[in-house]
Design goal:
By secondary structure, the chain is mainly alpha-helical. It has one domain (about 5-140): Cytochrome Bc1 Complex, Chain D, domain 2. About 50% of the residues lie in helices and about 5% in strands. The chain has a two-stranded antiparallel ribbon with strand order 1-2. A hairpin with a 2-residue loop joins β1 (about 75-80) and β2.
Length: about 140
């Protein structure tokens, strides 16, 4: 398997684990299920900074938390957090593109359905409510800094 394909597969697997965490599952590391052992713990600690720096409305906070724990920061950056992988864009100002909540939900549910060849994993496992929260957060992210 080519190196890029292995990397995409690994990121998809990590995305699936992260989606489980966002859906309420606990990831156990070394016999511990404490918050410090959950995937996305560091990004979750960054959420209050994102809210303050980017002047996010209260309605976007739940989605920011989903973004933090669902593994989005494994490939995307946001307000200085996360890392850039697979040419994934910084999403701090994605809302300035005014793509719309409906588009965001469709893309998050099935990225390759909207953008064939996208290496982004599908996040339909988050469920309708969390996908909507995430879409609200992304649309509110206008790069206010």
């Amino acid at each position: 398997m080519p190196r890029r394909s292995r990397r995409v597969l690994l990121l998809c697997l990590l995305g699936g684990v992260a989606a489980g965490v966002a859906a309420g599952a606990t990831v156990v590391f070394g016999g511990s299920s404490t918050p410090s052992g959950t995937l996305g713990a560091q990004a979750a600690r960054d959420v209050p900074t994102w809210v303050e720096d980017e002047h996010l409305p209260r309605t976007a906070v739940a989605g920011a938390t989903v973004f933090a724990v669902a593994g989005c920061t494994a490939c995307h950056t946001y307000d200085g957090s996360g890392r850039s992988a697979l040419n994934a864009p910084d999403l701090t100002s994605i809302g300035s593109h005014r793509l719309g909540i409906g588009f965001e939900i469709r893309f998050l549910r099935c990225p390759t359905c909207v953008n064939p060849g996208s290496p982004m994993p599908h996040f339909e496992r988050l469920g309708a409510a969390r996908l909507r929260q995430l879409a609200v957060f992304l649309e509110a992210s206008k790069g206010a800094r």
